[in-house]
């Protein structure tokens, strides 16, 4: 299975830190945020990684190179200034991801979910499998609901989408490469057809979206043995 790490966001909420450094390269625990993802992917047996980028993308390529430092092969999917939104970025990268289901991870999160689970997460006939987490203080209303092993957008209590999903390429059928497109509408349509499964992760998860959360996570990781 291939994996994609989303790294094309401008990081507006993280400014001024992201004025000269792309958010995935901001350091937490002594290493770039994206390096934590690459280490976990490599440890789980992934070898082929796709990374999209837009804002200061050449810095990302320069810092990560071919991925050989982690025993990975990294290929890059450049996007125009302003990027293409999540679904648009995935569609742009489909030629690199192939025709089989693939794992996608937001580059601006920190999470200890076992990425090795991705290989068997998507059931035949499903279009997506989502990892959900308990709602943090900055997203108290949640995004989607887990009912059994199925995910829906219509339920009294919703959890937060962790920014980790396994997708079948067919989820993106009809979208045009190079055009911005959001992921949530595609997921809601697939949920309505009963083709989205999911799971709730109770472990460590942080949306590293602000300088305060970046600093808190940095101090937490540095304090660990």
Give a structural overview.
With 225 residues, this protein is an alpha/beta fold. It has a single domain, classed as Spore Coat Polysaccharide Biosynthesis Protein SpsA, Chain A (Alpha-Beta Complex), CATH 3.90.550.10. Helices cover 24% and strands 25% of the residues. The protein contains 5 helices and 13 strands. β2 and β3 (31-32) form a beta hairpin.
Give the arrangement of secondary structure elements.
Layout: E1 3-7, E2 27-28, E3 31-32, H1 33-43, E4 48-53, H2 57-64, E5 73-78, H3 85-97, E6 102-106, E7 109-111, E8 128-133, E9 145-147, E10 150-152, E11 160-167, H4 184-192, E12 196-200, E13 205-207, H5 211-223
Parallel strand pairs: 1-4, 1-6, 4-5, 8-12
Antiparallel strand pairs: 2-3, 6-11, 7-13, 8-11, 9-10
Summed up:
By secondary structure, this protein is α/β, with parallel strands linked by helices. The protein has 5 helices and 13 strands. The strands form 4 sheets. A 7-stranded mixed sheet has the order 5-4-1-6-11-8-12. It has a two-stranded antiparallel ribbon with strand order 2-3.
Q: Summarize the main sheet.
A: 7 strands, mixed
CATH H-tier superfamily: Spore Coat Polysaccharide Biosynthesis Protein SpsA, Chain A
Q: Using the alpha-carbon principal axes, give the shape.
A: globular
Distance between the termini: 32 Å
Low-confidence stretches: none
